[in-house]
Structure formats: structure tokens, C-alpha cells
Amino acid sequence: MIALLALGATLAAENEITLDRVDFLSADPGTFLNYDVPMIAQAHPSATGIRFLEQVQVVLGTPLDGLYLGVSISSQSFVMEQPVAELPVDAVRLVPDNLFVYGGVQTNTLIPRGLMLGAGWRAGPVRTSLGLSLLSNASWRRLDYGHWHALPTISVGVGRKHASP
Amino acid sequence: MWRWSLLFAVAGCGLRNAEGQPYYEAHRGGAGEWPANSRAALEGSVAAGYDAVEFDIQLTQDLEPVIAHDPWLDEELCTTASGGSIDTKVYFKDLQLLDLEDYRCGGIADPEHPDAEVVEGEILTLTEALAILRLADDAMVVHLDVKYEPPHTIDDPNTFCTVVLETWFDALMENPMYLSGTQPELIRACEDAASTMGDELETSITWPYFPVNGSDTLTAVTNELGFQLGFSDLISRARRSDADGVNIAWQVADRREVEDAANAGLNVQIWTINDTDRMEAFAKWPVTSIITDYPGMAP
Predict the structure, then answer these.
(1) Which of A92, A155, B79, B156 has the most CB atoms lying inside 10 A of its own CB?
(2) What would the pLDDT profile of A100-129 be if each residue is shown by its tens digit?
């Protein structure tokens, strides 16, 4: 994770990578919303606070248009984001310009462990999304792809304004 | 405003409440109601008909298992037999069983449990504790928490296990029992010892291990980061210990980890929960039991 951030900083110095936003509520992996928020009144406040901070994700734009790299303590992801208006479907002319769809791979310290997909919208510097996180138990400790969790997700991030398509 | 509504509507959608209900263990015999690890606590729990009782086991220098939490006589809650204070750390591993007759515990109000009864008594041996529990319903679960914590205790897990298990099996108890400890080598040693004796044994590894005189915060944060970064988890810890379950502190319990452990066939116990709202919340998790100082408050 630190190596990823260092790589990002290096590439950023060459204007290859840009800071897109910080997701204060991240869709990757989505466990805070599903497991910690419902227990917020009964869990230990320090544990809830730490888990909130662990999922705050720095999202970097890459040289490849639409590809983003997200880095937090709890997860790292590679996500393709596509404005709906740019999809080759006639019906998309009916949707707002700032709507997008996304899909990507989640990792746990670079061990692939899940998938994420969803849709969202950008309004100025604010990016919001609704999606689904498919999460396995794979980690450096155990490459367990036998059990999966399907978690609905919401993300809220603040960052760079994007031009409309 | 609608975004907040959406957020709260989505939160927890990935959850499914566990089927069934956990049972409730009287922690240290019911430390919220009686002196911890005392004759009064065990007799009280038996009379109250609680689901389960948990108590701690130390080993004396002459290898007698006795009921006490810390590796030393509790300077706050114990006194000499004549009522004098204990001014230095007196380790059980340095005491013979007969030496314990010079001490009493439970006669001083416990500041952590101000409503608990104050009943002075001798330190029980495991044999004496089991004699009390023989009067309980056979369904009452007995949880032996073996306090193997070198260098503060005898540093041979095989000796600990052999002595404790021989005492248990010699007592011919009908009750279900499980044994817990913080060290993987203790759990493995106890599983091996039981197998040698020709008996089955259910075990749980306690997590996290809060070292005596260590920083609880540092331990909790280190364990949390290890889990989040994928270098440690409950299932691996249980497998490495040959344990049948995991015994987790509620402050650091993570629902996803607990679900994964339960799905992997592990028993999960949560300690130590002392308010009803929190008990109700954790009772929805897939846990086998909840350990509490106040089993009378269980929902």
C-alpha cells in the first residue's frame, strides 16, 4: 500500500498520476457501511473510529483515461469509470451528463479478493455512487476464494471537478 | 437529506441475523454479582441455574490448579488471613498449595463491580470448584480459562494441560466443558494431552492476547492492522492452535471475521459484555456464547 502511494507520488511528479478525490465513505470494500455502521451504538467507539479511518480511500487518476487507483488501509482497487453519456447506447441521451458506471477489482494488500461495480454521479467536486461489492476471504494469510460476501455499497468522495462529457 | 436516508437504508443490508441464540457464561463465576473466581460465585451461579460458568486457572509451585485470574495474588482484592494487606507481588508459581491458606480473597469490595456481594473466602482449588459444580444441572457448560502466561507462570504448557485435564477427568463431570487460553502452544498441548488420555477436548484460542503489563491499545491496534492488511485472521490463528473456536474481546470484534469464523465451523465466544443493549446486539452475530459478569441481565 505504501509502495503504491510512493509509486503514485513518483508518477504524479511526472504528471502521469493525479489526485482525483478522497472517498470519505468508500465503496471499497464496503464493510464499514454494512458491518460497523449498524453497530455504531454498541461497538467500542475507538474500534468504529479506527475502522472508519481504515476505509477512507485516496483515489488517483492514472494515465489511462477512466482508470482509477484507490488506496486505503483496508483495501486497494483498480476501477474503470465510464460516463454513461459516452456509452454506445442510444438511450443514454436521456440520462444526466454527470452519471457514470464503474467496475473494478479489489485487492487486500495487492492480493485480488473481490469485484465492485455500480453507478454514480459527480456534482462539482462531490462524487457519490451506489453499487455492489463482491468480497472473498482471500488475503496473504489465506487464499480463500471459497466464501463470498455480497455487500451493497455507497460511496461519498470529494475531489477534482470533472468536465462534463 | 435523501442521501442520509439512502445511506441508512443501505447500511447493514449485507447482514443476516444469526439463527438461534447464544448462551451466556458467568464470567469468573459471575463477577458482577459475587467476588470473582470465588466459592460464593460458583455456588451462586449453580443456584441461579446459569447457562454456563467461566473461571480462571493458575498453577501453584507444587502443580495444584487453583482458581485465580492473575499470575499473582490480587493485591487489591485479597488480604492475608489475618486481614493484613499484600504489599508485594506474590506469584502462584512461587507458592505451595498450603501457603494459600495464609490468604483470603473477596472480602474487599471490588471497585469494578460495586454492587457485587462482598464475601471473604479461601482461594479454591480446581478440585473444590468442580465439587461445587457437580451440584449444577448437567447441561451447564464449564469454561476453564487456563492462565498459561510465561514468564509469570510455570512455562511448561504440557504440565499445565496434564494437571488441569487429569483433575477434570478424575472428577467424572457430566457437564460439557471447553478450555481456553491465549497461547497457541497451550491449546495444542492440551489437545495432545486429552488425546493421550483417550478423551475429546473442545478448545478456544483467546484473541487478542493482551500481555500482562503490556499496552492494551497497542495490542488492539496491532491486531487490527494485521487483519486489515491480510497478514492475520481468526481462522488462521485457530487452525495454527488446533483450536475448535475463538474467544474474542468485544471491543475489537469484527462481524465479518466472526461470520467467516462461524462459516468455517469454529465456535465463537465474545467477552466480556456487561450491558443489555450490547448483549442484544452481539446476540444477533453468529456467536456460540457471550461471556458476561452479569448473566442475570442476559436478554
Answers:
(1) A155
(2) 999 999 999 999 999 999 999 999 999 999
Please list every residue in chain B whose beta carbon sits closer than 8 Å to the beta carbon of residue A25. Answer: 7
Residue listed under C-alpha cell 509451585: B61
Encode pLDDT of B142-183 as tens digits: 999 999 999 999 999 999 999 999 999 999 999 999 999 999
Decide if A44 and B254 are in contact by the 8 Å CB cutoff. no
In tens, the pLDDT along B66-87 reads: 999 999 999 999 999 999 999 9
Most A-contacting residue of B13, B225, B228 (CB-CB within 10 A), to test interface: B228
Grid cell for residue A137? 476471504
The CA-CA-CA angle for residues B248, B253, B255, to 5°, reads: 120
Nearest partner of A66 among A86, A94, A52, judged by Cα: A86
Q: Residue type for B23, please?
A: Y
Closest residue by Cα to residue B106 from B26, B213, B29? B29
A150 DSSP β-pair partners: A134
> CB-CB: which of B11, B228, B251 is closest to A37?
B11
Tell me the C-alpha to C-alpha distance, in Å, between residue B227 and each of A85, A106, A140, B236, B274: 40, 16, 10, 11, 26
Which residue type sits at B243? A
Q: Pull the grid cell for residue B103.
A: 490468604
